[in-house]
Amino acid sequence: MTTQLGDLLDEARRRTFVGRRRELASFDDALEGRSSRRVLLVHGPGGIGKTTLLLELRTRGRDVGRAVVLLDAREIDPSPEGFEHAVLAALGEPPSGPVAGRLAGAVLLVDGYEQLGPIDGWLRQAFLPALPADALVVLAGRDAPASPWRTDPGWRSLVAVRRLDHFDEAESDELLALAGVAPPVRAHLVRLGRGHPLAMALLADVAVTGTVPDSLAEVPDLVSALLETLLRGAPSDAHMSGLAACATAWLTTEDLLRKVVGADAPAVWGLAGTAAVHRQRAPRALAPRPGQGRAGRRVRAPLAGAVPVAAPGRPRPRGRRPARRHRPRPPAPGPAPALPAP
Ligand SMILES: Nc1ncnc2c1ncn2[C@@H]1O[C@H](COP(=O)(O)OP(=O)(O)O)[C@@H](O)[C@H]1O
Ligand SMILES: [Mg+2]
Q1: Ligand nearest to the CA of 198
Q2: Number of the ligand 1 atom closest to the C-alpha atom of 46
Q3: Could you tell me if the CB of 19 is within 6 A of ligand 1?
Q4: pLDDT value for 88
């Protein structure tokens, strides 16, 4: 049989795949009938490795002879008909007729699941229950699954929820090594990338082409790519400008965010938390100085100082967590503090 370019791509991806042991084990157990789980719900922010994981799962499913359907929800109309059409098209079937039975023994992988919020209930209550019991489904999206997936006693026994985390230092080092980065440089890049897979991959690319940046401020293109990934898929303009403000301001609170996005502040604040936006240390020249007061603490840092990553094993900075004490409350009286434009 002729080898296709896609086969070479899959082989190369396989060779460079790092970590995700728990997720792979859950999938393999379900695939081989060692577990009762039939639906895996994978979630995590942009650039954390959802698509990469799904591509590895596709290869594993094919390796054991299963039919595999991989859908990108960003290309699907979020309606029951749109979803069923997409499944049929991926199976090479005419765009009408019953769908469920065609997925007997198949693996259905859905990327960008956050786009399918409007049919999340339909999938849970109608589409998935109609599938043959030997089908295996993986839904990967940015948001944690809606509560019925976790609370319904039926689904609880069939679902495994996996949040994708940042790589630890050993996994980060392995990613860089597999990308061809020389050992002396790797420890430095592991510190810069902080375990965010996309950040690590971009740093590896920069390093193997010759330049090893001392800090992220030296690679603004890389920071732009990270920010774009973070902001892509923001549900509204308010989310977009609010997230951009979070990513570029030295210090953001929910009250300050309200000055930028108004009533959408609680929603944007929550998204910033799940997107794991946090700042690097600000350059010394921009750090607040004693006696500067609140205005000093809102000094804007350069875009190049911001990166959508959270250090592995460290909590997000206190000001960023959408904690209870930040829940909506009336704006403070007095003049509105100005947040610098993103
Ligand atoms: N498990 C992994 N092994 C190796 N590299 C990875 C892994 N996960 C992510 N990456 C790197 O990070 C990049 C971004 O990951 P991606 O899967 O596109 O994230 P997401 O789909 O969550 O936005 C990938 O192109 C790849 O370079
Ligand atoms: Mg993706």
Answers
A1: 1
A2: 23
A3: yes
A4: 93
Extract the tokens encoding 294: 């609140």
Distance CA 101, CA 98 (A): 7
Residue 297 CA to ligand 2 center (angstroms) comes to 35
Residues 39 and 146: their CA atoms lie apart, in Å, by 14
Closest CA to ligand 1's atom 16: 49
For residue 197, give the ligand 1 atom closest to its CA. Answer: 12
Residue pair 78/119 in contact (Cβ under 8 Å)? The answer is yes
Residue 241's Cα: distance from chain center in Å? 19
State the distance from the centre of ligand 2 to the C-alpha of 140, rounded, in angstroms.
9
Judge whether 67 and 107 are in contact, CB under 8 Å. yes
Residue of 52, 142, 206 to test ligand 1 pocket, by largest number of atoms within 8 Å of CB: 52
Region 8-37: what's the mean pLDDT?
93
Contacts of 113 (CB under 8 A, 6+ apart): 43, 73, 139, 140, 141, 143
Is the pTM higher than 0.90? no
Tell me the CA–centroid distance for residue 99 and ligand 1, in Å.
31
253 lines ligand 1 (CB under 6 A): no
3-state per-residue secondary structure call for 130-187: HCCCCCEEEEEECCCCCHHHHHCHHHHHHEEEEECCCCCHHHHHHHHHHCCCCHHHHH
Provide the pLDDT confidence category of residue 23 given band limits of 50, 70 and 90: very high
What are the C-alpha distances in Å from 212 to residues 103, 177, 187? Answer: 48, 15, 12
Q: Please write the tens of the pLDDT for every residue from 118-151.
A: 999 999 999 999 999 999 999 999 989 999 999 9
CATH, range 14-163: 3.40.50.300
pLDDT tens, position by position, 277-288: 443 333 333 344
Structure tokens at 218: 């030296």
CA distances from 274 to 30, 138, 153, 163, 269 (A): 28, 20, 26, 11, 9
